[in-house]
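Bench notes, bay 3.
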Amino acid sequence: MKDKQVLKIGLLIDSFQIPAWAYRVVEKICQGGYAQFALVILHPAAKTSDNWGIKAPGNFGSLLYRMFEKFEDQRYNPLNPFTLTDVKPLLTRATVITLNPPGGKSALTFREEEIEQIRRHQLDLIFKVGPVPLTGEILRAARYGVWAYHHSANPADNAEPFGFWEVLEQHPTTGAQLLILGEQAMQHRVIYHSDSSTNEYSFKRNRSLHYWKSVSFLSRRLKELHQLGEEPFFAMIDQLSPSAAPNSRKPFPVPTNRRLLLPLARHMLRQGFDKLSKRKHFHQWILLYHLGESPSRDFRAYRKMLPPKDRLWADPFVLHRDGTYYIFIEEALYNPKKGVISVMTMDEQGNYGTPQTIIERPYHMSYPYLIHWEGEDYMIPETSQNKTIELYKCVEFPHKWEFQYNLMEGVKAVDTTLFSHDGKWWMFVNITENEGASTWDELFLFYADHPFSRNWTPHPQNPIVSDTKSARPAGKIFLQDGQIYRPSQNCSRRYGYGLKINRIVELNEQRYREEESASYEPWEARIKGVHTYNREHHLTLIDAVYWRER
């Protein structure tokens, strides 16, 4: 919008008691300065305050589901996105209209005079909270239509309860979308899509993570619409977002007893088998390496570096000095499980020493990203538990490092990775914006004139990646044959399941674009994951989850 007037939004709900995740959506918009809620439409059929769990045919017909839900309640207690919260204090400046449709609470319908009443407020859009579909003139009562969340991987799929079947059927990802509603599902316009890793065992955790993550979708798109204006915004949407294409799989069914019996039995047996297996085996992060003049990604040929069984080694970064490789890693004992930064040496024949701890703090540390700048060595380890991005300087190589200052504070940021390009320094980092969401899913980009700036400018496309299959950094960004490549984690099945190499196609202050160049998944039965790739001189290092006997 040329005059940069704030967007006028209508909120369609059934009462002022709305789920906590939706409250946070409204709160973020109210705090943003680019939009305001001008109208609240109270409609008894909106079902905003319903139990967002399940549509099932009566208590007996869904008995197995309800028993499983109680079982989950006893075992898992994530931050509940469905706690009813009073949104009225956020909407004191909005006009409130209460509708009494002829169908009562049975249908989300609007009289002609009610549509005209809404149109008189000249809204830019209506945000609908609730699972009930809309049709008719209400879809055209605001300039940009009615926007709504759809918690499923495809807009044509009315899966309920969200995130349940994905766990039982072992889908690698669980998707969520923001839509501009059409008359039918295939006419919805997808304006935001994001995939998250499906929790292996708990649908309650799975559902919670995805709802909290989705809180930011609407505020991000509204901010872009306000900044770009109508035509550039929708041109961007057409380029970035998928269409409402039909899903190749069958829609998830309502979990009746008959439909749930076998999948639930398989799920419980799988959990029991995993628990028994872990009595004799355990998952351990190990290192693997390859020495050669040319880089190799034939990971089967890499040699393993096994840590003692009481700890893990992960996140290897390396420097080469005077014929010796200095390998910096996260080292963490299993009890207590708190990472420290350690260093070990390796010669050109692959002989390596015992790691020595070089940085330890009261909080967890990992991912010791290294940068050599103006003749000095620096490190930016991951310190998300302290909600900081910290800078350390080496004062006595390689064992003595001193804290300098925080590059960022008050941020839950993981795996910070810097890269110099076109006269700017670029910071790639995964950030969790909303409490209760995952650190695996969203990659943010910032830029500055100096690598150790305290004032980083956020990229306008943030998050530049919102996909658990490729977001989280997995090592130093590198140049090869004149191209820029960014290693990333594939967390689609579990944390650190696979590794991707992404070619950066476009990187400037306005645009970011990357394309997948290569993808690697576990290559032998005992390898369960891989999530770091780094190379220096002749040494290439990765880490992997290894299924090891106790």
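Next record in the batch:
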Amino acid sequence: VTNGRLHAKNWIPNPSSTGVLKIDGPEVANFEDQVKLFQAGEKDEVEFLRFRLRQGVYGQRQPDRQMIRVKIPFGGLTADQMDVLGEAADKYAPLKKGHITTRENVQYHHVPLEETTDLLRMIGDAGLSTREACGNTVRNVVAAPSAGVSKDEVFDVTPYAAAYARYFLRHPTTQNMPRKSKTAFSGSEKDEAMVLMHDVGMVARIENGRRGFKIVLGGGLSTSPMMAQTLRDFVPVEDFIKHCEAA
């Protein structure tokens, strides 16, 4: 987990924001209402499953226990946010710990269903979100651990990764995709973020003094691993999100 206060000015959208992603208070309140309906037997189980996955809440095999996945776009956290993540683990995770995933999320296991809303509010107050961390959505956007400080990078990709994450969050076209989509940003051809194993990948480039990205598509692992193929060798930074959306 990198990019604390040093680079916060680059990726927090405005001075009144506390994080990369927009926090929607009514959305959390609605989640609380839906949990109560489900527990009262007034909400269809399959419908509730789809709903809670979009909120970053996974059911576990243990009855009424959930795994909560917090998105950390490009691994960027402030010191205050790290404190809140620790407090959330102490208060809501029975094992008093969280897990940092390979895709720069933080997960809490065995959280009682009735306590999930309180956890979401706690991290939301710190500018952190679980929205679309699960399900067939645009998942957490990752970047190289050294993004913003690497001597090899062409430029710092974190502001662009943040813009990408904000654009696709709650986007109407990404709420019920056929499958999930995973994205990575690398600051140079060294590709420390391993974009070639992602559905969508951006590699920083400069041509004729302009910042831009090489865009690759179609990478993946699992049971049918494949390397991503180049969609565009160079797209200016002001156009790369449009190309990704069209693809």
